[in-house]
Every structure is written in C-alpha cells, then in structure tokens.
C-alpha cells in the first residue's frame, strides 16, 4: 500500500500485506509452522535478545498471524493487535493483564455468560472483585466506581438484551479516575463501531463471529490504543498463558475480513427488515434492536453505530414454552448459539449462552426465560420472514 491513508473498506482487503515480499502471491501465504530455523547460533541469540527481527517460535509470533494483527489494528484504529485461539482467551488475557489481587472490575449489567464465569473465577481465586451495574447515565457510572476500580469492561450492544451504553461518556469519566476501559465489540464488528475512537483503551472481539463470518473458526482479537501495551501483553500474558491462534485459523480470518463490510451491510439490511416484521406481529411481546426508535438509547446507538447491526432479541406470548415451540417450528433458521454467520441462527439465552449465570443475576441482566436471540444471516430476508411467520402462526 503506497498511500498513507485509505478508506476502511480498502484496508480490510489490503492492510499489512504486500505480494512483493512473497513471490507475488496475491493470497496471504499460510506459514503453517511451529518454529523457525536460524541460520546461525548467533542469529538465534540476536532474535531472542530482540536485536534482530524475524521468526523464533509461533507462540511468540507468526508471519500469517502478523498480517491479521496489522489488519485488525488498522480496522479498529489502534496501534497494535493480538490474535488468540478464542474470544475468551482475549477476554482472559486483557483482564489478567490489567488487574492484580484486591482490584475491582466494573462491568455493564449484562455480559456474555463465559465472561461472567471468568469474573467469578478471578473473584474466588484471586480476590479481584467485580460489579455488574447500570452504566447508562453519568450519575450511575460515577456511583458504581470504587476506589479500587482499575477497569471498566463494557459490552454494547449488551449480549443478548441489546442495551446500549454510551462509550464516549464512560471513557470520559474513566479518564478522570485513571481507569482503563475495555470494550467487547463482538456484536458490531469494526465496520459498525470503533470504541478506540471514542476513547477506550482496548477493544476485543470474539472473532468467531463477524470477523470470520463463515462459522468455521473459534478465535479472538485484542486491539490496543497504544503499541507499548500490546507489545507488553505479547511478551508476557499472551506468551506465558499461551492462548494463541493457529496460523491456519488466522489465514481463514484474513479471508473473512476481506468481505466484512459487504457482509455487515447485508446482515444489517436483513435485520432491519425482520425487525419491522416482528415489531408488528401480535405474538411478539417485546423486541430489542439498537435502531428501534422506541429504544431509550436509540440516540446513543445512532451516534456510535453505523447501522443497527445483525442481531435482534425478542419475547413471544406464552413464555418459555412458546419460545421453545417457535424454535422447533422453524424450517430454514437454525437453532444454534454463535452469531455473525451466513446462516440465520436462533438461540435461547437462559438455557444456552447464559445458562451458567445464576437465575437471580440472569433476571437482573434482563434475560427472561422467554427471551430469544436471532442472529440474522445473509439469506434473502423474504425467506427468513416467511419462516418466522409460519412458525409464529403455530404458537
Ligand atoms: N464476547 C461475546 C459478546 C460473545 O458472544 C462471545 C461468544 O459467544 C465471546 C465473547 C467469547 O468468544 P469465543 O466463543 O470466541 O471464545
């Protein structure tokens, strides 16, 4: 890439790679290797001492993974990125990096079930405490911060209730208190929302979802505002906990990223069509979608997201029984956890993704037993609406 700056869609296709240095290979080569041979003993010593660039061992860095990291850093407007073998490896790495015994983590009142599980492990084993709190107003954010809070960990939209928090407002308050802000941006992807631009320190993704987009990889990404932070994590927690990505999975993610913008536009348009259909169906009781004008955080969503995204949650009349019956009646839409795939997926958070969260906390998070989460895929929305309509007519 010769010019200094390109539009984001161009970066998704090209950033971090030049075919000139790889025998003209248009596709990023797959360096499927665990280790790298040194030409001499001295060269090996120089590489370990950090005096010479080049491969050492793939847990410490790999050229294919490096292209993915450069591309993701550019996409999220950060100075550096790290790729992991799962989204949870990215979550656990950043939380271990930022905290020590006695510290406190403040979270949005809803978070992914396994992130909740991890916070409980940190609390039980290392006395790193946490609170889930309503972070939707300045007063509530200020009230939830404790003297030992070192990190505010946000999901927005929150999985699966789609509640929105104002990233810029939270980061403004966090800076005042010297607190680091981490945003799980899985639901939006870098195409719809860029938390680092809004003042966050770190942004992470379950790259299993929209980043890959094809339902065939489990992976995670962490992007940092500062290169020094990312280099530090690379040479400490990531290296020593070891949750790295395989070169082949990195290669698949690079392939997925090339179409991220095209896919996200289609996911978003399909979701907007389905939202309109569900909203007017009498069997749908409540519906949660960021760009719903009736949503109290609609203005915040509009300010920080490019579109309403590809996810919709809703409840139907008749509670859990009808929710499960609806899922069983669907013919085209698949019953599966995960999201961001080409196929439209439906899941039941209280018995699936959030079943590890005890009932009391689940209800506080707004995850009722009748709630369903739809990840709208890339099919024709008319077929999806027809499938939902025939299933709704049977409950
Ligand atoms: N964050 C969110 C919002 C998620 O939905 C998930 C998984 O569903 C994760 C993190 C964890 O990612 P992974 O399953 O890739 O470990």
Brief summary:
Helices cover 40% and strands 15% of the residues. The chain folds into two domains: 8-30 and 61-257, Aspartate Aminotransferase, domain 2 (3-Layer(aba) Sandwich), CATH 3.40.640; 262-392, Aspartate Aminotransferase, domain 1. It is of the alpha/beta class and 395 residues long.
User: What spatial form do the alpha-carbon principal axes imply?
Assistant: globular
Number of helices in the DSSP assignment: 16
The CATH homologous superfamily of the largest domain is termed Type I PLP-dependent aspartate aminotransferase-like (Major domain)
Assign the CATH class of the largest domain: Alpha Beta
Mean pLDDT: 96
Total domains, how many? Answer: 2
Helical fraction equals: 25-40%
CATH architecture of the largest domain: 3-Layer(aba) Sandwich
What portion of residues belong to β-strands? 5-15%
What oligomeric arrangement do these chains adopt?
Answer: single chain
Q: Please tally the β strands and state the result.
A: 12
Predict the CATH topology of the largest domain.
Aspartate Aminotransferase, domain 2
User: How are the strands of the biggest sheet laid out side by side?
Assistant: 1-7-6-5-4-2-3
List all distinct small molecules, including ions and cofactors, that are bound in this structure.
pyridoxal-5'-phosphate
The end-to-end span amounts to: 55 Å
Give the biggest sheet.
7 strands, mixed
- Secondary structural class: alpha/beta
Poorly predicted runs are none
Q: What order do the helices and strands follow?
A: HHHEHEHEHEHEHEEHHHHEHEHEEHEH
What value does the Rg take, in angstroms? Answer: 21 Å
């Amino acid at each position: 890439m010769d010019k200094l700056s390109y539009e984001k869609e161009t970066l998704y296709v090209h950033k971090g790679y030049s075919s000139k240095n790889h025998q003209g290979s248009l596709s990023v080569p797959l360096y499927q290797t665990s280790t790298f041979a040194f030409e001499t003993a001295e060269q090996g010593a120089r590489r370990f001492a950090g005096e010479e660039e080049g491969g050492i061992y793939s847990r410490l860095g790999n050229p294919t993974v490096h292209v993915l990291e450069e591309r993701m850093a550019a996409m999220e407007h950060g100075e550096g990125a790290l790729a992991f073998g799962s989204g949870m490896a990215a979550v656990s790495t950043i939380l271990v990096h930022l905290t020590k015994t006695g510290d406190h983590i403040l979270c949005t009142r809803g978070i992914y079930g396994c992130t909740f599980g991890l916070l409980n492990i940190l609390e039980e084993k290392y006395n790193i405490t946490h609170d889930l709190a309503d972070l939707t107003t300045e007063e509530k954010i200020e009230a939830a911060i404790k003297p030992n809070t070192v990190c505010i960990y946000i999901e927005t939209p929150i999985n699966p209730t789609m509640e929105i928090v104002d990233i810029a407002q939270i980061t403004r308050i966090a800076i005042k208190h010297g607190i680091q802000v981490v945003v799980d941006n899985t639901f939006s992807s870098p195409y719809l929302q860029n938390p680092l631009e809004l003042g966050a320190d770190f942004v992470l993704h379950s790259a299993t979802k929209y980043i890959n987009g094809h339902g065939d990889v489990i992976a995670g990404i962490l992007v940092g505002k500062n290169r020094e932070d990312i280099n530090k994590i690379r040479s400490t927690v990531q290296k020593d906990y070891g949750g790295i990505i395989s070169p082949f999975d990195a290669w698949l993610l690079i392939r997925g990223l090339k179409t991220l913008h095209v896919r996200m536009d289609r996911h978003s348009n399909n979701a907007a069509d389905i939202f309109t259909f569900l909203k007017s169906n009498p069997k749908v009781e409540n519906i949660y979608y960021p760009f719903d004008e009736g949503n109290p955080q609609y203005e915040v969503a509009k300010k920080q997201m490019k579109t309403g995204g590809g996810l919709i949650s809703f409840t139907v009349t008749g509670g859990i029984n009808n929710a499960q019956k609806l899922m069983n009646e669907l013919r085209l839409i698949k019953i599966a956890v995960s999201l961001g795939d080409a196929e439209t997926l439906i899941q039941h958070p209280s018995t699936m993704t959030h079943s590890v969260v005890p009932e009391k906390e689940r209800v506080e998070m707004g995850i009722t037993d009748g709630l369903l989460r739809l990840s709208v895929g890339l099919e024709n929305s008319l077929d999806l609406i027809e499938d939902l309509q025939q299933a709704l007519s049977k409950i």
